[in-house]
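So, can you check what follows?
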Amino acid sequence: SPALLTLQPNTLNSYSTSNPPTRTHLRYANATFTSSKHPPELLFTTAHFRNFPAYAHPEVAFLGRSNVGKSSLLNALFNRTRDTIAHVSKRPGRTRTMNAFSVGAPLGFAKGGELGSGEKLDRWRRLGPGGCVVVDMPGYGGGSQEEWGVEALKFLENRRQLRRVFLLVDAQHGLKGSDMQLLTHLKRKGVPCQVVLSKVDKLLYPSARMPSPGKLSRALWELRTRCDEVREEVEIEIGDAKMSGLGDILCCSAEKSLDEWPRRGKLGIDEIRWAILSACGLD
């Protein structure tokens, strides 16, 4: 049905502080993340904040509860759904380190010798001008270990070039206690953060068949209600109107589109790409 092919950013997402991206914005974001000339690359992996290198590129971070679909989302963002760059596992808590990926920046030729930590840790020295860095954070809850969270918090609270944290929340289940605790902590520390509802295809069309326009409309209303519930929960929990403002809530699916074309972009992926570029001043 043609109605299924016209889902606009402001229909899928909840924009309260910024204007929805235009088609031109989304095309630019898509081109930046899917460039064959400068494809996203793994720069380094570390379990400790003290090992983060000093470079001038702006950063964003993705975090969420274990098994919220973070690795799948990153692979979709990086256009690596087949040849994955972020490891996807059915076992919760698989991501145990902080993993940094380049976006839109060239990797030059290696200069000098190894740093004693292997080729991947040396890649950041080859990072050219422009672009940004996306950091994949360890999951929390359900299999994750507390000590990983300590190092993650050091990064989130002290990394100067960190421009925004994207907190993934399962669209079906909403905010959990650990989500709220982390979101409240980041808000009180003044860390810019944005909620992303993942796996929205479970709400929009839970069966294998494509939904009718009527069913899709009702499901989108349910999704918008879920966004409003998240906002209200955060406002009640934090209790400070100035601090509790959640801003835009983005919605996505790393698995499905709203049509049967295999090459069609997955739900909400380009909007998240645009949000990353905007946060890093690359819009």
About this structure: The first helix runs from residue 9 to 12. The radius of gyration is 18 Å.
